[in-house]
């Protein structure tokens, strides 16, 4: 996971296009609670002939946790990546704290904004990916410090102090000087979360942050995310962890074939499941996660 200004640098194993980060710190006050931090209107995106996002409208308010669920290939990652302009969108608007992301108007026409402008708009957005993308030759603290020194111009001592505080926040102060190779997947993902937090984002985007983890390591990462939610962090989380979504989300968004088919409270989405495709999706999920009960019948299995 990386704060987005940091993501402009190629992380190990990543094929992101890179432009030099030209970012300032979040110098103005955060918006008031409840104001939309992100507003998406009529978002469309196609890859060649395939229309992947087909008019998405979404609002994420300050301190809201929005969980995005849906079948494989429905466009969840593409949507999240558009919110950070890691993917250029074709139509509609993505507004971050009121500013249009990725484009500007020149001679009455919409044109792509400069790298510096894009970074300016997304400077308060942090992102965590399925793959942690830590630098293997840097310690946990080193990984967190790197962007602080490079992007924010902090001294080594300052950056280390902040890095240790962030690692403490994710329960890893004791492993600050360990290299990623000596950390479990769950610990590596928590370092990646600390790295994004260090950039003081106003919103964090998570794309299936636990799906590359062994099942017994999922909980520790979800715990950190729950703590962030309790502290009021605004979060958009693409997840297959329905329990997490049910417990933590203010709003659950079900995407199907590039459109938001259902959105509402966890109760409305999981319990009422008004939409046939949603019901089918949840049934598949329950079938896969059915657990043997005392009577010998798996719970949640369809007849
Ligand atoms: N860079 C790309 N080039 C071409 N097609 C792409 C690209 N990225 C995604 N797609 C296609 O867009 C569609 C949506 O992909 P996306 O990754 O957003 O789905 P998803 O909902 O995140 O799926 P999953 O649950 O499997 O992660 C898929 O059909 C995918 O094959
Ligand atoms: Mg995806």
Number of helices: 10
Order of helices and strands: EHEEEHEEEEHEHHHEHEHEEHH
* Mean pLDDT score: 87
Q: Calculate Rg over CA atoms.
A: 20 Å
Cα end-to-end separation? 41 Å
Query: Major sheet: size, sense and barrel closure?
Result: 7 strands, mixed
- Cofactors, ions and other ligands in the entry: adenosine-5'-triphosphate, magnesium ion
* Helical coverage, percent range: 25-40%
Give a verbal description of the structure.
By secondary structure, this protein is of the alpha/beta class. It contains ten helices and 13 strands. A seven-stranded mixed beta sheet has the order 1-9-10-11-4-12-13, with helices on both faces. A four-stranded antiparallel beta sheet has the order 3-2-5-6, covered by helices on one side. Helix 5 crosses helix 6. The radius of gyration is 20 Å and the shape is globular. 44% of the residues are buried. The N terminus is likely disordered. It binds adenosine-5'-triphosphate and magnesium ion (MG). Adenosine-5'-triphosphate binds next to strand 3 and helix 2.
Topology, please?
Blueprint: E1 2-3, H1 4-7, E2 36-47, E3 50-61, E4 65-69, H2 76-83, E5 91-96, E6 99-100, E7 103-106, E8 109-112, H3 115-121, E9 125-128, H4 140-150, H5 156-169, H6 185-197, E10 203-207, H7 215-230, E11 234-238, H8 242-248, E12 251-256, E13 259-264, H9 266-272, H10 276-288
Parallel strand pairs: 4-11, 4-12, 9-10, 10-11
Antiparallel strand pairs: 1-9, 2-3, 2-5, 5-6, 7-8, 12-13
Helix pairs in contact: 4-5, 4-6, 5-6, 6-7
Bound molecules: adenosine-5'-triphosphate and magnesium ion.
Magnesium ion is lined by residues 76-77.
